[in-house]
Amino acid sequence: MAVNWAQVLFNSAVTGSLYLLGAVGLTLTYGLSQFPNFAHAEYITLGAFIGYFIAGPLGLGLPAALVIAFLCTGIVGAICYRGIFQPLAKRGASIIHLMVASIAVSFILRYSIGAIWGWNPLYFKSWPSFQIGSLRIVGLWLWLLAAAVVLALALHFALVNTRIGKAIRATSSNPGLALASGIHTESVVTMTWFVGAGLAAVAGIFRGADTQVWPTTGWDIILPIFAVAVLGGIGNFYGSIAAAFIIGLAENLGVVALLALGLSTEYRLAIAFIIIIVTLIFRPRGLAMLFRRA
Fold first, then answer.
1. N or C, fewer C-beta in 10 Å, the chain?
2. How confident is the model over 161-205, as pLDDT tens digits?
3. 251: closest CA among 278, 229, 280, 221?
4. Of residues 261 and 286, which shows the higher confidence score?
5. What is the per-residue burial (b if ≥16 Cβ within 10 Å, else e) of 129-164?
6. How far apart are CA 73 and CA 54, in angstroms?
7. pLDDT in tens, 93-145
8. Among positive and negative, which fits the CA dihedral 217, 219, 224, 229?
9. What's the CA gap between 188 and 101, in Å, rounded?
10. Domain range summary for the chain, segments of one domain joined by +
11. Cα-flanking dihedrals φ and ψ of residue 192, to 5°?
12. At what angle do helices 237-260 and 222-232 cross, to 10 degrees?
């Protein structure tokens, strides 16, 4: 079987960019709040639906869809934290209680989305594509790559050079010390939840535009996004960048291997499971040790 390696590598970069957008918010909120938020999948789905109606029926285009979905879903994420998870944490809820609560919030959001927009798949307009040698490139993928680059640069600048970025890093490293230093940690966590949910919405738009939009759009990709968070090291932004592209490459190489073996490419979903298990066994802190300043 002839393999178009240029296409495999390009597809890996596209996949990694999608996972980066989806995982950054999850890993930062996980690092600050100390529990995995399964409702993150529904932020992805909500963003996909909002983006579809802004870019499609309303005809405002993809840039407006990205901005509006980011803001709306970010507000939902902040409300979920301040209205549900923060009160539970203050009452001494354990990580298990918070996980169960996030699953409950996930189902509430999913079925609310289904009740509002329906359960039938929706589709964005078709995107133009072009060929460079053996490499097929879709216009949407270029938008996705650009969004990932802008995100990485913007968050790097924010974390290193702004007060809120330094406050996020301080709160993640030592919440007690950060509070004693005069940092309003609850505001920092709320802002992080807002940004995290907004970035999930952006990932949802790109996922929906490339495939379909329906009430389980987020759950279709939440497992590899969790794998990115685990491999990158919980709360570690720079580790999540490396992990996103490692998992994107692993997934696309896995597809090549599955095709060579005559197996269904649906088995690629197992790759994320394998990465999570191996990481937890051999390197529980993931890539965090390589990026100690993150």
1. N
2. 888 888 887 777 777 777 777 778 888 899 999 999 999 999 999
3. 221
4. 261
5. eeeeeeeebbebbebbbebbeebbeebeebbeeeee
6. 13
7. 899 999 999 999 999 999 999 999 999 999 998 889 999 888 999 999 999 99
8. positive
9. 22
10. 5-290
11. -65, -40
12. 130
CA dihedral sign of residues 197, 203, 207, 213:
positive
Fold of the CATH domain 5-290 = ABC transporter involved in vitamin B12 uptake, BtuC (1.10.3470)
**Residues belonging to the chain:** 294
Residue 240: Cβ-neighbour burial (10 angstroms; 0-12, 13-18, 19+): buried
> In the structure encoding, which two tokens stand for residue 232, read together?
């990158």
Task: Give me the pLDDT at residue 294, please.
Answer: 46
Q: Considering only CA atoms, which of 122, 129, 119, 99 is closest in space to residue 38?
A: 99
Question: What does the pLDDT read at residue 178?
Answer: 74
Helix, strand and coil in the chain, % to nearest 5: 75, 5, 20
Spatial separation of the C-alpha atoms in residues 162 and 178, rounded to whole Å: 16
